Amino acid sequence: MPRRVLQGTVVSTKNDKTVVVRVERQVMHPLYKKYVRKSKKFHAHDEENRFKTGDVVRIRECRPISKLKSWEVVVEE
Question: Which biological process, per GO, is one annotated for this protein (predicted)?
Fold first, then answer.
């Protein structure tokens, strides 16, 4: 089964080797048929503390690293 890959914005880098990434998506409201923006935060593993607040990153599913972290930042070079 392939790992999910999401794209989002880094909103916090206060923890060591961890970034908090906000992933936004648009869903249509069932009654009003208008698109509503929804977001969710994910804790992702950043081994080298490379990313800063405001960076756009891609994260992918991985094994559970801690209680909250089961995503890792994909480094694209």
Answer: translation
